[in-house]
Amino acid sequence: MPISTAEITKLRELTGAGMMDCKKALDEAAGDMEKASEILRKKGIVKAAKRESKIAAEGLTAVKVAGNMAAIVEVNSETDFVAKSDDFKNLVGLVLDAVIAEKPATVEAALALPALANKFSEAVAKIGEKINLRRLALMEKGAGENIGAYVHMGGKISALTVLEGGSEELARDISMHIAAANPRYLNRESVDPAEVAKEKEIAGEQLRAQKKPENIIENIVKGKLDKFYGEICLLEQPYIKDEEKTVGKLAEEAGAKIKAFYRYELGGGMEKKSSDFAAEVAEQLK
Known about the structure:
This protein is of the alpha+beta class. It is built from 13 helices and 8 strands. Strand 4 and strand 5 form a beta hairpin.
């Protein structure tokens, strides 16, 4: 018999499992709510749902280059211990393979892929921690382009760069620089105008507080902005292997142009919650 939306919603409220998992369980149980709930428990999906309130800020960032495609992902766990396990690393590898093969545009689209269906809830049930795919990005190189990847500290930071011209070695070196220097923009033209306006305002107020004459403030602010761009724009940053030249100059000398880049730092922008380890163990034993 057809399963109604109301029944699916009720089972979801009872178990905390996802809508599709609830529908499949109800279909399997021929609409029997108690049996469907038992099916979810046996599959470990209810256990997975109970982890939803946890903060997963550990894990790994990872990259993979395959042919003309490259992917960068961040998969989170609750503890560093789990992130170092083979089960977790295998899951990250599975995600990278699926993303490159199917080219999903969003995390939601990736999680809906047949290759990843139920993989996260199964991993949660096996490992006992909340695990989630936080973000992903894809790069595709065209003719005459090169992709370089770099992973730092075993997955704490990952970077990808695609160049027009140059070489894979140069693209990798620039990715290494990106991992270390954390540029936020490619060039000054791509910086948010509101951010530039705020920097100018702050610099001007600081100079006026120092009683600097108005006729020289404009030139000093320009110098401060140049320094600001040099800190946040990849092309204007001093290259980590040769600080006498900028990354832009490095690429120019090699006849290359930086087309795009990504940098993922594990847990960037996330709040980590301290917890009582004994309490966590007790909860796992429930």
